[in-house]
Amino acid sequence: MVSRCSDLDALAEFERQPRTSTGNASGTVDPAGPPSAPPVTDPGSVPDLLTVKDAAVILRCSPSKGKKIVADGTVPSVSIGRLRRVRRSDLDRYINNLA
Fold it and tell me: Is the pTM of this model over 0.70?
């Protein structure tokens, strides 16, 4: 059993360590920012239900444009509780009808 004193000692040691507000494991800040999601190249790796944000990434449009086309019914979506999802088949149909 760990004593309360050793827990307090460990906490005190943790508090004495220098902190970084942002950055990676080495404590340095990456000037490029967080990495963006890689483009989808393998259609088999895409799930059947996509978030609106994921659908916008596939369409290569802004998340707000993705929300707009889902909200106005241009791309059908389903509601799962409070979540809104786009079927991959509906998104593919929308893409095919653009041409």
Answer: no
